[in-house]
Write a structure and sequence with these properties.
Length: 382
C-alpha cells in the first residue's frame, strides 16, 4: 500500500468517526421520541386514574388528618373542618347529593387558615384565640398553634401568616407523599404499557440500527416536534403549567405522527408561601410526577383526558407502531430462545423505568439532543 493511500485513509478516519457518532445520536433521538409518546400515554392514564379515584383529594385529606388529628383518635377537628361550608364548597358534590368519596384536590393556604380559625373559635371573637387553642383535643396541634402564636408576638395578622406558612410547608411534604405513591403506580403502568405494545428498548435499538429509512423519519419527526414546541410561546400556568403545541405535519412516507402536547404537564409549582412580616418567599417546584394540582377533577376534565387518551392511541402511537413493528403481531414467544426471552424481559423493565420518569424529562432531553443533531450533518447525507 502506497504512502498516499495511507494518508488518504487516515484523513478519512475523523469523518467516519463523526458519522458513526451522529448515527448513534440519531438512534438515541428515535428511542427517546418513542419513550416520550409512551410517557405521555402513561401520564394521561394516570390523570384518568387520579380523577376516577380522587387520588389528590385523598392525599389532601391525609395531610389534613396529619395536621389536625395526629394524636386525636376521634378526629373531632377533622370532622368539623370537613363540615365547614367553605370546605364543602370546594368539593365536587357541594349542592348535590354526595356519592362516594368527595374532597377538594387543592386548597389554598388562605382558605385553610380561614376554615381552621372558624373551627377553633366556633363563632367567638378572635380575642379568645389563645384560650380556645388550649382546649383543642389534639395535643400536637395545640403545641404547634401555641408556638406560632408565641412567635407572632400575639399579633393576629402575623399569626394568620404563620399558619399559612405552616400549611404550605406541610403541603410540600404532601407533594412528596403523592410523588412516591404515584411513582409506584407509574412504574407498574409503564410495565403494562411496555408489555401491551411490545415496546422493548433493546429490540427498538436493534430495529433502528438496521433500518436507516425508518430511523431518519422518526428523528425528523422528533425534530419537527421540538421546533413546533419552541414556536408555541410561553407555557401557560393554570395551577400547573401545561404545554400546548401546534400540530406538526406528518411526512407522507409513513413517518410517526406528531405529538399533541396538550396532555404533557411540566412540574407544577405551589403558590408562594407568605413570609412573616409581609412579602412572599418563593416556593419550590412540586415534583413532576405530582402531575396536576389546582382545580378539582370534573366530568369535563375526565372527558378531556379520555379524549386525549383515545387520540394518543389512535393517532400518534398508531403511527409509530407500523414502521417500528410495535405490537405482538407475528411474534411467537414459544420460538424464542432463553437469551431472547431474557433480552426482551430486560427491555420491558428498561421501558417501564423510562416511562415512570415522566414525559417532561424526556421532552427536555429530546430537545437538547435534537439541537445537537441539527447543528451537524445527517448520518446518511453522505
Amino acid at each position: 500500500m502506497s504512502e498516499a493511500t495511507l494518508q488518504r485513509e487516515r484523513s478519512e478516519l475523523p469523518e467516519i468517526n463523526y458519522l458513526a457518532h451522529m448515527q448513534i445520536l440519531t438512534i438515541v433521538i428515535g428511542i427517546i421520541f418513542v419513550l416520550l409518546l409512551l410517557s405521555l400515554l402513561a401520564t394521561t392514564m394516570m390523570e384518568l386514574l387520579s380523577s376516577v379515584f380522587s387520588l389528590r383529594g385523598r392525599n389532601l385529606v391525609k395531610a389534613l388528618r396529619n395536621m389536625l388529628a395526629s394524636s386525636d383518635k376521634n378526629e373531632v377537628l377533622v370532622d368539623a373542618f370537613q363540615q365547614n361550608s367553605m370546605y364543602r364548597h370546594l368539593t365536587q358534590q357541594y349542592g348535590r347529593e354526595q356519592k362516594g368519596f368527595s374532597a377538594p384536590s387543592y386548597m389554598s393556604a388562605e382558605t385553610f387558615q380561614s376554615i381552621l380559625l372558624d373551627v377553633i373559635l366556633k363563632g367567638e371573637p378572635i380575642d379568645n384565640l389563645e384560650e380556645k387553642i388550649k382546649t383543642l383535643p389534639d395535643e400536637d396541634l395545640k403545641n404547634v398553634l401555641s408556638q406560632l402564636l408565641r412567635e407572632s408576638g400575639g399579633q393576629r395578622d402575623l399569626f394568620r401568616l404563620e399558619v399559612q406558612n405552616w400549611y404550605n410547608n406541610v403541603m410540600d411534604r404532601a407533594a412528596g407523599w403523592y410523588k412516591r405513591y404515584t411513582q409506584k403506580i407509574l412504574l407498574l403502568m409503564g410495565l403494562g404499557i411496555a408489555v401491551l405494545f411490545n415496546a422493548d428498548v433493546v429490540a427498538l435499538y436493534d430495529r433502528l440500527s438496521n433500518d436507516p429509512e425508518t430511523l431518519e423519519q422518526l428523528a425528523d419527526a422528533a425534530e419537527r416536534y421540538v421546533q413546533a414546541r419552541d414556536q408555541a410561546g410561553p407555557i401557560k400556568n393554570q395551577a400547573g403549567p401545561q404545554v400546548q403545541t401546534p400540530p406538526v405535519a406528518v411526512p407522507s412516507g409513513g413517518g410517526p405522527a406528531p405529538v399533541d402536547t396538550a396532555n404533557m404537564s411540566a412540574a407544577p409549582t405551589t403558590d408562594a408561601a407568605p413570609a412573616p412580616g409581609g412579602g412572599y418567599q418563593p416556593a419550590e417546584p412540586v415534583p413532576a410526577t405530582y402531575l396536576y394540582s389546582g382545580e378539582d377533577a370534573s366530568d369535563q376534565d375526565f372527558r378531556t383526558s379520555l379524549e386525549d387518551l383515545k387520540g394518543l392511541l389512535n393517532n400518534e402511537i398508531a403511527e409509530i407502531k407500523r414502521p417500528l413493528g410495535l405490537g405482538w403481531e407475528g411474534v411467537s414467544m414459544r420460538d424464542m430462545e432463553a437469551y431472547d426471552l431474557m433480552s426482551k424481559l430486560l427491555g420491558f423493565i428498561l421501558t417501564a423505568l423510562a416511562i415512570s420518569m415522566g414525559a417532561p424529562f424526556w421532552f427536555d432531553l429530546l430537545k437538547k439532543l435534537v439541537n445537537i443533531r441539527s447543528s451537524g450533518s445527517r448520518p446518511y447525507e453522505n
